[in-house]
């Protein structure tokens, strides 16, 4: 029972932290990650919120992933995108009220903090080993279909999102580059350390 509780707390708490980090990248105003830039661009073009588009794009990707891998849709990933989408709207609309940071130095500091926060939160939520974010599922699907290495598949997925974000006028900038290249190494740094801590608590 204790291990189940720890997994649930890791899952919800990690997604809450990730959503906070994503929100900060958007509010920093220097460019968000490719997928987040796509969601922001779509929100600007429509009456739906950023969190709504996190959910809509996630649902589309669940279907695309199933088609690419010729398997059943990973339905439980819906829970992940619902939680993430609503958390992002909570931070953006309720807490920060769509404010934007100004001044390059402050924006850069907020952006770097946001990237660390996203990696930290992702390292926590992945401990639950419950449901991948559909974006990650898309990366694995590309790898399996094209027979390429995971990093190549990730690059292809990010480029697809980047082109789509550019088309819809999403916020692309130096932040987009930093998010793309720093998240992975930071997750590699945080994950084993958090894993040891959570495993230690699980056996208490």
What does the secondary structure layout of this molecule look like, with pairings?
Elements: H1 2-28, H2 34-45, H3 50-69, H4 77-95, H5 104-125, H6 134-146, H7 150-167, H8 174-202
Helix pairs in contact: 1-4, 1-5, 1-8, 2-3, 2-7, 3-4, 3-6, 5-8, 6-7
Strand content: under 5%
How many beta-strand segments? 0
Helix-strand makeup class:
mainly alpha
Give helix % range.
over 70%
* N- and C-termini, Cα separation: 12 Å
Largest sheet: none
What is the CA-atom radius of gyration, in angstroms?
Answer: 17 Å
Q: Give the mean pLDDT.
A: 88
Distinct helical segment count? 8
User: What is the approximate shape?
Assistant: globular
- The parts where pLDDT drops under 50 for at least 5 residues are none
Number of domains: 1
Spell the H/E element sequence: HHHHHHHH
How would you describe this protein?
- Helix content is 78%, strand content 0%.
- With 204 residues, the protein is mainly α.
- The chain has one domain.
- Keywords: Membrane, Transmembrane, Transmembrane helix.
- It holds the Pfam family DUF6198.
Provide a compact summary of the structure:
By secondary structure, the chain is mainly alpha-helical. Helices cover 78% and strands 0% of the residues.
């Amino acid at each position: 029972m204790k291990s189940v509780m720890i997994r649930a707390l890791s899952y919800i708490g990690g997604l809450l932290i990730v959503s906070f980090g994503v929100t900060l990248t958007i509010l920093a105003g220097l460019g968000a990650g490719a997928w987040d830039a796509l969601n922001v661009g779509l929100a600007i073009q429509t009456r739906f919120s950023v969190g709504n588009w996190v959910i809509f794009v996630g649902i589309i990707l669940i279907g695309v992933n199933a088609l690419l891998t010729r398997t059943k849709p990973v339905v439980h990933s819906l829970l992940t995108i619902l939680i993430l989408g609503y958390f992002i709207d909570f931070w953006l609309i309720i807490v920060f009220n769509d404010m934007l940071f100004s001044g390059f130095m402050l924006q850069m500091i907020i952006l770097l903090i946001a990237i660390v926060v996203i990696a930290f939160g992702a390292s926590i939520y992945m401990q639950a080993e419950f449901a991948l974010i559909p974006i990650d599922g898309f990366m694995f699907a590309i790898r399996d279909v094209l027979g390429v290495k995971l990093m190549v598949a990730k690059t292809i997925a990010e480029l697809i999102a980047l082109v789509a974000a550019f088309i819809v006028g999403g916020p692309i900038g130096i932040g987009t580059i930093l998010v793309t290249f720093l998240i992975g190494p930071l997750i590699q740094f945080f994950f084993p350390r958090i894993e040891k801590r959570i495993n230690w608590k699980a056996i208490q």
